[in-house]
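Example: Thioredoxin domain-containing protein.
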Amino acid sequence: MSLLWLLLAPSAAEAGLYTASDQILLLSPGNVEAALINSTAAMVVEFYASWCGHCIAFSPVYKSLARDIKEWKPAVNLAAIDCAAEDNRKVCAAYRIRGYPTIKVTNSALPTHPLLDSNRWNRFLSSL
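Written out as structure tokens, the predicted fold is:
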């Protein structure tokens, strides 16, 4: 591997784990409010760190899920945000992300607009 390639290739933190072609909405400080608060779709959001081994291992599963449910749009949408990117850290802190990966589900049609972490969501589903 040449040194020039290593210098020109983006780092994992710069590149993230997903691209727009993965059928996953890439969140940033500029679009998070419109995507999560002003959207009528139910949003499944992965908060990840591009350096995180568990996140890297989970990314093919999340990409596969995005492909499997693409017909569900616009009712359900998948999104992701790289909390390792400097620009995204305030967003991740605002959503109280303390570990990676974290999956949260939101639906602005709910009266209180809660963001449910995966444990709370699973407890809710098992109570039905």
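The longest strand covers residues 42-48.
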